[in-house]
Specification:
By secondary structure, the chain is α/β, with parallel strands linked by helices. The chain has two domains: 11-106 and 213-291, Vaccinia Virus protein VP39 (Rossmann fold, 3-Layer(aba) Sandwich); 119-211, Putative methyltransferase TM0872, insert domain (DNA polymerase, domain 1, Orthogonal Bundle). Helix content is 44%, strand content 15%. The protein has helices at 11-18, 35-42, 57-67, 82-88, 105-109, 135-141, 144-155, 160-172, 179-187, 200-211, 213-227, 241-256, 272-277; strands at residues 25-28, 49-54, 72-76, 94-100, 228-238, 260-262, 285-291. Bound molecules: S-adenosylmethionine (SAM). S-adenosylmethionine binds next to helix 2 and strand 2.
């Protein structure tokens, strides 16, 4: 298997904000290719442990090789399961947890995974290749109203109705099977905004729906009190406004309870140099909260 790497975004601020104990127990909820974990381990002591979660077994395999460190335990599970998994190792709570949401450069750049409108491949988009729902199933079998709803809710697509209608019409002529077929259908239906390709929002909506991403974010925000111990911190990096809104509101709610405090009043974003070197970092926003 080809070995990929992923440049972790905001790695310096993540380490500065999250690593409160050099020999602590940490959770990397979105291990990906292990970019953050490798960096965090370089700043941690010999007794530290990181439990890394990912839904994607291919990513986990590469992360194990990239990180190559006995302090990492890589787990094939949703980050939502982190409290139970830690308990199964006899650990009551973590000193810190990181969630770097969305998809890795490996998933985006690998045509076989079907995430990118720039690469022709099967319409898959699953983080977890053992899950059954694919983007192909959604575009070929979901009813009009459901297609329109995900385009609106997960893509914030203004032309949701027109695109959903175009998908219904296209599938009457045969199955929609590839990313380029989907891209063409959208291109023939709507115009893009500025430099953004007209199918960008459609691809985002499908990816979020296939992986039930917003429900996972909501659930992990709900279980944070089971995951983080007193004095510990959680950091979440988001890449679009739908996720950031969920995190911002949940953190506000937690801090107003008096049991948590916001570590950074304003979101942390990439500086000029990082944004120049790693375009992915340009839309990243980091929020950190501490359990009192
Ligand atoms: C942006 S990448 C993480 C990159 C990683 N921080 C690094 O530096 O290499 C996000 C990863 O989270 C995984 N993922 C998304 N939702 C997940 C979930 N609910 N549970 C576990 N992993 C998830 C994806 O499969 C992807 O590998």
């Amino acid at each position: 298997m080809q070995q990929w790497t992923h440049i972790p975004v905001l790695a310096g601020p993540v380490a500065d904000f999250l690593l409160i104990r050099s020999d602590g127990v940490y959770v990397d909820g979105t291990l990906g290719l292990g970019g953050h974990t490798k960096f965090l381990l370089s700043r941690l002591g010999p007794q530290a442990r990181i439990f890394g979660f990912d839904k994607d077994e291919e990513a986990l395999e590469m992360a194990r090789r990239n990180v190559n460190d006995a302090r990492l335990t890589a787990v094939h599970a949703s980050y939502v399961q982190a409290p139970q998994v830690l308990r199964s190792y006899g650990i009551d709570g973590a000193d810190g947890a990181l969630f770097d949401l969305g998809l890795s450069s490996y998933q985006l750049d690998n045509p076989a995974r079907g995430f990118s409108l720039l690469r022709d491949g099967p319409l898959d988009m699953r983080f977890d290749l053992s899950a059954s729902l694919t983007a192909e199933e959604i575009v070929n079998t979901w009813p009009l109203a459901q297609l329109e709803r995900i385009l609106q809710d997960y893509g914030e697509e203004r032309n949701a109705h027109a695109i959903a209608m175009a998908l219904m019409a296209a599938r009457r002529n045969g199955k929609i099977e590839t990313t380029f077929q989907l891209k063409k259908i959208v291109e023939n239906t709507v115009r893009g905004r500025g430099k953004i390709h007209p199918a960008t929002q459609t691809f985002q909506a499908l990816r979020i729906a296939v992986n039930d991403e917003l429900a996972c974010v909501q659930e992990v925000l709900r279980v944070l009190p089971d995951l983080i111990k007193s004095g510990g911190r959680a950091g979440i990096i988001t890449f679009h406004s739908l996720e950031d809104r969920l995190v911002k509101n949940a953190f506000k709610h937690l801090s107003s309870s008096g049991a948590w405090r916001l570590v950074n009043k304003h979101v942390v974003a990439a500086g000029y140099e990082e944004a120049r070197q790693n375009p992915r970092s340009r839309s990243a926003k980091l929020r950190v909260i501490e359990r009192l």
